[in-house]
Amino acid sequence: MTLIVFFLMFITASATEKLCPLRASIDVLEGEYFFLCYLESMQEHFQEEAYTINWYKENAGKQQLIKETGRIVSQMNFLEFWPAELSDSGNYSVTHSNGKQNFTIQKWTLNVLERNKSSCFNKNHLTTEIKNAGTGHSLKCSDLSVNENDSITWYKDCKNYENETERELDFKTLTVQHSGIYTCKILISHKGKIYHSTNTIKLVVEEDAPEAGALEIVGHNEEIETEIGKEETLNCTGFLGYYMREDASLYWLINQKFPEKCTGIPENEPSICEEELKKLKLGNKFYVTTLLWIKKVTDEDMHRNFTCMLQADERTQMKIVKLKKGNTRDLPVHIFTTGMVLAVLFPCVAVAVVFVCVMFRVDLVLFYRNICRRDDTAGDGKEYDAFVSYLKDCISPTEEEREFALKILPMILEENFGYKLCIFERDVSPGGGKCIEYSCH
C-alpha cells in the first residue's frame, strides 16, 4: 500500500513539474482559462507539520490576500482563473504559514494580454519555430489541461486545419507550404460551463534554414570580489540563436527564490532587485539580458547563490554567481604619487617658513601690531621704548641725518606703531640729563 501511495505521489509530482516550470514572467490571453502553480518536493509532504497556503497579489505596493471567488479558485498548489481578465495583471506570490512564520515560496509577474478582435491569436502571444524542409517535426499543444477527454482543435492561419484533434500535430516531411501560424484550442468543462485555452506557434519552414544556434548563457559560473557596503550589479545574458524565441525566459534566483522587481524609483528600491528583461539583436544573433542590482553588499550576500536561469524550447541553462571578499587593494597610483610629493615638499616649506620668520622677525612683529592693534610694551613700567642716539656735538650732522632722527623715526615708530622714543633734544630738559661725549676723528 505504501508503495502504491509513493508511486501515485511520484506521478503527481512529475505531472506538476511539467505544468509548473520556474517562470518569473507569464503571458496569458484575456478570456482564457489559466492557472499559477508552484512545485513542492515530496520530502515536504512527509516532513511539514500542519500549514496553510496563502496567495497574494500586489496592490499599490502592498501584498493583498487573494480571496476565492467563483472566478478565482485556490486548490493546493494551484491558483486557477476561470477565466483570466485584464485586471488580473500584476505581481503574485504564494506563502506557507505554520502559525508562527510565513515563508514565501514563489513569485510571478502575470501579464494578461488583450485579445485581437480581428484574429484568433495575439502576435505577442506566440512562439516561433524555424525548421528545415524535408525533416520531420511535431507541434505540441498547451499543457494547461491534462484531461485526456478535453476537446482539442487545430487551426492554421485561423482556419480549421484538417480536422486535427490530437495534442500533437505531426509532420512526417516538412515543406515550405507548411509554414504558417498554428493555433491549438482546448475546450475545458468546469461547473457546467465551457472554457478554452489556446497555444499559438509560428512555424517557418525554409529550404536552407540557418542553424538555430545553441541556447546558452553567456559566461560561466564565477566569483566576484567585492566589499561590504559596496554596490554591485550582476549581469546575466542569454544567447538565443539566430531568431528571437518568444518563449525564452531569463531570470535570477537568490537561493532558489525570486528577487523583487526594481521599481525605477531609487529611494523606494529594495536592497536587492531585478531589472526588466531586455531583448537584443547584434548582427544576426539574438540575446536576452537582465541585471540584478545589489544596493549595498552585506555579509549575508557573501553566502548566497545568485543563479541566472535561461529557459526556452524545454531546455534550461544556468549560471551561478557568488560574491567573496576581495583582498586589500593597493593605493591607486595617483594617490601614492600625490602623497610622496607632499612628503617631500612639507619639510622644504617648513624650513622656508622658519627662514622667513628669522630674517623678517621685526617686520612681522610690526605687521602683527598693526593688524591686531595691540601694544605689548604697555604696562611694562618703562617710560620709553627706545633711545635715539646720533652724533650732534662733535660734528654738524647733515640735514638728512637730523631729519631722519628727529622726524622720520618718530613719525613711523610713534605715530604708526605706537612706540615711545626718547630723543635727547626733544625729551631731555636742560640740566636734566648727562651729556654724552663722543670722540671725533
List the helices and strands and how they pair.
Blueprint: H1 2-19, E1 25-29, E2 34-37, H2 42-47, E3 52-59, E4 62-65, E5 72-75, E6 78-81, E7 90-97, E8 102-113, E9 127-132, E10 137-140, E11 151-156, E12 159-160, E13 168-171, E14 180-190, E15 193-206, E16 216-217, E17 222-226, E18 232-241, E19 249-254, E20 260-261, E21 272-274, E22 278-282, E23 285-294, E24 306-312, E25 315-325, H3 333-359, H4 361-372, E26 386-388, H5 399-416, E27 421-423, H6 424-427
Parallel strand pairs: 1-8, 9-15, 17-25, 20-21, 26-27
Antiparallel strand pairs: 2-6, 3-4, 3-7, 5-6, 7-8, 10-13, 11-12, 11-14, 14-15, 16-18, 18-23, 19-24, 21-23, 22-23, 24-25
Strand content: 35-45%
CATH-level-2 architecture of the largest domain: Sandwich
Query: In the residues, how many domains can be counted?
Result: 4
Q: Please tell me what the overall shape is.
A: elongated
Distance between the termini: 143 Å
- Sheet of most strands: 6 strands, mixed
Secondary structure class reads alpha+beta
CATH class category name of the largest domain: Mainly Beta
Domain Ig-like: 21-111, 134-186, 210-321
GO biological process, one term: positive regulation of type II interferon production
Family: Belongs to the interleukin-1 receptor family.
GO molecular function: hydrolase activity; interleukin-1 receptor activity; interleukin-18 binding; interleukin-18 receptor activity
